[in-house]
Design a protein that fits this description.
The complex is a heterodimer of chains A (359) and B (280). Chain A has 2 domains: 227 residues, Rossmann fold, CATH 3.40.50.300; 121 residues, Nucleic acid-binding proteins (OB fold (Dihydrolipoamide Acetyltransferase, E2P), Beta Barrel), CATH 2.40.50.140. Helices cover 25% and strands 33% of the residues of chain A. Chain A has 9 helices and 20 strands. In chain A, α2 crosses α3, α2 packs parallel to α4 and α3 crosses α4. With 280 residues, chain B is an all-alpha fold. Chain B has a single domain, classed as MetI-like fold. The chains are: A alpha+beta (359), B mainly alpha (280). Chains A and B meet through β6 and α2 of A and α9 and α10 of B.
């Protein structure tokens, strides 16, 4: 158990390829941090630097009180779970679990005890003597977890551990890993490209893009108040609607539509992207004025609701509506004023408005 | 459909016949006595002298000096075959390990240097090799027989390809588990390469077993004769009206064939796995 501190860490590959750019994260003891971003954003590189599999170009990483920049992976007191599990194919499950401890010179009875404990926690006791190839994907995943647990490390590192599982198993393992981590109280750093995993598992999410941190925050913070257009479009499914617009004396103008804004919600008089989540748009009520009119392209039925995709002016927009009622070709929509986001036209950063700065 | 199947079998049987007939003829001939063979040529029937021929061939001292027996030749062949195959596997595995897992200066250059030796088989460099061995005083030793043949681009290349197909995560997992270069090699890589080692061992054993030119050059004492050389030698003993011991020559040929065949038959499942398996 320990906190992990990542301070101004950069990774430069030969040439000027900057895979990770001055990243700082403070991870509290026992916290579950998820690094999420598109492929090539540097999240795996960052994790591998914490693991010691990748050299750190600049900055420092501390596990507990110790700076581990030049410490061998085996000495860092971490355990890693790989995407393809990386179980030793010629060893039985038992040997796989014990190998690291054996190398460390842990006494035999102690090894046996720890393996038995881990097996009990993960319910893999019945196939301790099988080879990895005789196991299903989910079972292998558990063994990989077991190999991490027996070491009783200061931190778990997960490198997209669920990507090789089918959808159903993924949901199940997601819950199990989360529960297990809470139960053991071990700090965890988890890399994924799946924003749903990030949302459901993390205590805090770190959104990375092109080697830089876009935002750090709890899942709800990141979802509700994305700091940039990138975060807004990456987190949440469907992605947040981002539509080019501009301000007109405090009101929002999208194509030919003008969305009237009251005082607190007033938007700046300039070009920007405005963002709104599909569920923050609703149909016009009785006698209400519509903010905009949507031409429907197609409808996705999701069972619990439906997702209507269409256009306003030239921009695409997705709207989440309850199922059941028949739809006309054109929908009259009202936006939730409290849930509108304004992003700078060129930098993509969030533009704070009066009501946000106030509270 | 049925007709095609029948035809397939006929073709296969023809193949089997073509391959097996010479072996059968050799075996049958070896069970006749020398005079019979000399007068009537090759035999396809059982001659009844099986035990005599094979006992003589294995135990009777023969050759020019009268020192070498068939059993001795079998031993020599095994020493050459096994020594050659073992040495080659060990050497090429270590070379491939260095090339794949260690970043050292000029690594690529060294790999290509090893690779280009494919263009220089023993036959091309046989004179300089012989000279080196003479200067080292290794003529008429097993060391001289085996060592110059060991360096092998083929083996190194096979192992290199195999090591490259081993997922990197395995190395990383081992590093996190505290395994250094030696531990990783012996605990992970060697067990993983088992089938590969078997396959290369078999190929190399047969190759070493069948060596003719190099042993002939390196050893002139008859006690170093291998089976493959012995066959020829028997036919060369043509003193006066003495009839060459054709039956024994055939018996030797059969004997020379046996171990490679047995090894391939026994280990063929491993062999096929080693060359085709990609499940890691």
């Amino acid at each position: 158990m320990a906190q992990v501190t990542i301070e101004n860490v950069s990774k430069t590959y030969s040439g000027d390829m900057r895979a990770v750019n001055s990243v700082s994260i403070d991870i509290a003891d026992g916290e579950f941090i998820v690094l999420v971003g598109p492929s090539g954003c540097g999240k795996s590189t960052l994790l591998r630097m914490v693991a010691g599999l990748e050299a750190i170009t600049e900055g420092s990483i501390r596990i507990g009180e110790r700076v581990v920049n030049d410490v061998e992976p085996a000495e860092r007191d971490i355990a890693m779970v790989f995407q393809n599990y990386a179980l030793y194919p010629h060893m039985s499950v038992r040997q796989n679990l014990a190998y690291g401890l054996k190398n460390r010179g842990t006494p035999k009875p102690e090894i046996e005890k720890r393996v038995a404990d881990a097996a009990a926690i993960l319910e893999i006791g019945s196939y301790l003597d099988r080879k990895p190839r005789q196991l299903s994907g989910g079972q292998r995943q558990r063994v990989a977890m077991g190999r991490a647990i027996v070491r009783e490390p200061a931190a778990f590192l997960f490198d997209e551990p669920l990507s090789n599982l089918d959808a159903k198993l993924r949901v199940q393992m997601r819950g199990e890993i989360k529960q297990l981590q809470k139960r053991l109280g071990t700090t965890a750093l988890y890399v994924t490209h799946d924003q749903l995993e990030a949302m459901t598992m993390a205590d805090r999410i770190v959104v990375l893009n092109a080697g830089r941190i876009e935002q750090i925050g709890t899942p709800l913070e990141v979802y509700r108040n994305p700091e940039s257009a990138f975060v807004a479009s990456f987190i949440g499914s469907p992605a947040m609607n981002l539509v080019p617009a501009h301000g007109e004396s405090g009101n929002l103008r999208v194509g030919e539509h003008v969305v009237a804004m009251s005082n607190g919600h007033a938007v700046p008089d300039s070009q920007f992207m405005f963002g709104v989540r599909a569920e923050d748009i609703r149909l016009r009520g009785e006698g209400e004025d519509a903010d905009m009119e949507l031409t429907i392209d197609y409808v996705e039925e999701l069972g619990a609701g439906r997702l209507v995709h269409g256009r306003i002016g030239g921009a695409r927009l997705a709207v989440s509506l309850p199922s059941g009622e028949p739809l006309s070709d054109r929908l009259h929509l009202v936006l939730d004023r409290d849930r509108l986001h304004i992003f700078d036209h060129s930098t993509g950063r969030r533009v704070r408005r009066e009501m946000e700065t106030a509270g | 459909m049925h007709k095609t199947k029948f035809l397939d079998h006929v073709i296969l049987l023809c193949g089997v016949f073509l391959m097996m007939a010479p072996v059968v003829v050799a075996f049958m001939t070896s069970t006749h006595d020398a005079v019979d063979v000399h007068m009537n040529g090759l035999q396809v029937t059982w001659g009844g002298h099986f035990t005599d021929t094979y006992k003589d061939m294995l135990l009777k001292k023969g050759g020019f000096t009268g020192e070498v027996t068939g059993a001795r030749m079998v031993m020599n062949s095994f020493i050459l075959g096994i020594g050659f195959a073992t040495g080659k596997v060990i050497l090429s595995m270590m070379a491939a390990y260095a090339i794949v897992y260690f970043r050292f200066r000029l690594g690529v250059v060294f790999f290509w240097m090893i690779f280009t030796t494919l263009l220089l088989p023993l036959e091309v460099r046989i004179l300089p090799s012989y000279e080196v061995m003479t200067k080292l005083g290794l003529v008429n030793t097993y060391t001289g027989l085996i060592v110059p043949l060991l360096a092998s681009a083929t083996g190194t290349f096979y192992f290199r390809q195999f090591f490259k197909s081993v997922p990197d995560e395995l190395l990383e997992a081992a590093r996190i588990d505290g395994a250094g270069p030696f531990k990783f090699f012996f605990d992970i890589l060697v067990p993983l390469s088992k089938t590969m080692i078997a396959a290369i061992f078999i190929i190399m054993f047969v190759y070493g077993w069948n060596q003719y030119l190099w042993p002939m050059l390196m050893t002139n004492e008859e006690s170093f004769y291998t089976l493959v050389r012995g066959i020829k030698q028997i036919l060369l003993v043509w003193v006066g009206s003495q009839i060459p011991e054709y039956n024994q020559a055939f018996a030797l040929a059969i004997l020379a064939m046996l171990p490679p065949v047995l090894i391939v038959v026994i280990f063929q499942s491993w062999f096929i796995k080693g060359l085709t398996e990609s499940d890691k």
